[in-house]
Amino acid sequence: IFKKELIELGGSRNKERSLSVAIVFCVQAVGGNPSLEIISPSVGTRGEAFTVVAKGASLNNIRSVVFYEPGVRCERVESAKDDQATLHMIADSQCSLGPYAFRLLSDDGFSELRTLTISPFPTVEEDKEAETQLVDANRTVLGTLESDDVDTYQVRVKAGERISAEAVGVRLGIFLLDTTLTLRDPTGQVIKRVDDTPMLNQDPSFSVIASVDGLYSIEITTADGSADADSQYALHIGNFPRPYSVFPLGGQAGTQTDITFTLSDSDPNDRFAKRMAFDTGLIGTRYVELKDGDSICPSPIPFRISTNEQVSVEADSTKLEIGSGVARTKNVVGRRLLVAPVSVHGVVREPNEIDSFDFSVHENETYSLEVFASRLGSLLDAVVEVRDQEGQVVSSGDDFECHDARLVFNAIASATYTVSIRDKRKNSGAAYCYCLELAPVQRSIAAFLPRRNKLSQAGQTIMIPKGNRSLALMGIRRDRAEGPAIMAFEGLPPNVAVDCPQVADSAFVVPVVFTAAESTPVVGALVAVNASLKASLNQSSLTGGFEQVVDLVGGPADAIFQLIKVDRLAVATVDPVPFSIELEAPQSPLSADGTMDIIVCVKRASGFESPIEVTLPLLPDWVDCQAKTRIPANEDFGTITIRAGRYAKAAKWPLVAEGVAGLAESPVNAALGGGAMGMRPRRQSAVSLSTVCTSLHWLAVCDSPASGLSDAVSAERGSEIDMVFHLELGDSMPERLVASLEGLPNRVHAATVEIKREAKTVRFKLKIDDDAPIGTFDSLVCRLSGTLKNQKVTYYVARNTKLIIAVPGGSQKDQSGRPLSSLDALRLRRKK
Q1: What are the tens digits of pLDDT across the range 324-338?
Q2: What is the pTM of this model?
């Protein structure tokens, strides 16, 4: 669109046309990794082949589609256009239902992560020309909504048959498409209108029994009218079971559990029970398909599966006085004493209800009490408390990353504790169910990739140009685990090496440098990352995997409405870029309250003349530098000045710089609002978007070897006065230094002074102009600059030294210029 508009703006004027052509060339020249904005359709049928159209940018050289999980694959890619590619997919007959995460892979790397949803039903395209569209039962309709559109579908149902509908809008992972569903009977009367549902959040659903024969209408529209032409939805329509709530919310691995599925929010009798088996390998939160005879729910149901003993809270309740109100407290069957680890299932059915139960522990240990409710489709906003035998609150918890509560407390083996759980807003109902897990806190460790940009997926894949390096900021998450951690990478592309420093106990993010040899083929891989802690005297060894949270649909105030978690890191080798960068390794430590100059070297390919923007993305606490350092076009060196604050602690820190090609200054750049690539007339792929890095170096931060002090000085306008600093300089400093006085007010001057490391004082000659400002200035500091092992370094001493400037005859000082106290000044005036 941008290129088309620029060409049209060329008009009949040759000058404008030439400018447009130049701009188009620049836009084409920057290239980049494939950008996948949207796929259509975003739903396919299990056991069938289907075609998906991908839209975005740089899609004309797609090599493959990489799925994170088996079950769906791409048989063939047709990518004839830069902004569109056709993907021929097939879903296995036994694949799981729900979303499948994937990325496109091209010569320039991986695209953003998107999801493709698999339905059990055949798909039907929306008929845009029809006012209403007749569909068969158990179909998935694929449509779009724009503005306040209302799409209407009809299905023929007999009396006594079930009619269910489920919208998939936000869960497609494309837009924040908040939809509503309306069900009308054959006479047009509204039977049901649904917005949000507990198990599907912003996506509505319903399931009712038809009262008469006929055509029932299902309307779908947006809740706020904010949809556009690309706002896709999938609408499952049929006689399938679509639960409104589920109880219990889980079970014990390796056993069978009787589960009750309530299908209606208004009819408690519209439910059925099913005995479900949970495999021993399914530990944690798992998604299980729900079948009722030949009918299948189009979206899997989340369950919490553990090895704990499973206990349900009894329905009988007793009254309990709570403050000024009366609450209802449910007790575990027989009020027996539970023993951790245990999972307790319950439902807050009555207003002001509090469920409570007693438990004990085997031995003195730290225990975790965690509620699984909101995450499993419950409406409960849980608040939990643990009390001891005297009724004193030991620990309490509210929201923990969501509406589900979690707390940790130290338990004593001989004691009895009472746990209570309630809804924060005192709401209740069949959908206010919970699973509460009580177990000893487990040590854990995991590697992760932090988000570097909250507004996009930028930086969430690793692209390594051939013969170059790329940086990843990798994190370690520890829970009750101490000590330095190590990360190992399995399944890297061929000829790719990793330099990953040990993650100190006090750190959680480190720079990891990936290097690709020039002979590396252009290829991508999903890499397993393993984190581990070595055994020590205080703890055993520990290992963990990798977790990456990818935001798909965001909202206001950084809210996330749809995300997906993946367990491998996307790493690709890509075509080479015409430059690389390297640091001159620091040869001396950076002093606290000092600076150091780091030299960045650029190696350019022939004909590459673009400026390079260099950053230091990760520095220790109290150490910083300018946000970006720009190395001008045709220059091969740049300088980054690193500053350490006074409170910087002595440490050894991994140091890496990143570089990206900037925009050169030219007349065309002004038209673009910034610049164009400084390339001679030939195309270089992905230059502007490929970020490279230096090799890994180490920066030592040390305590300052310099200290000093100076007395306050009082002077008058139009005078000269000496200011003396008393120094203590360490042997690790340069032999020769240049001292300068900083923080002086305007129109006060002091020349620099050269000193040797052995100097005990430095004397500055202050010259105060006739119009210098009057007052007290207390931000003076002595700066000592020098060169140490070919690196420029500075040290600051005697911060907050005070200078007082008065009008002629108005200063109160002794002969040395030292300010006098009020009493001494009075004595001096009387003496005069």
Answers
A1: 334 455 554 456 788
A2: 0.85
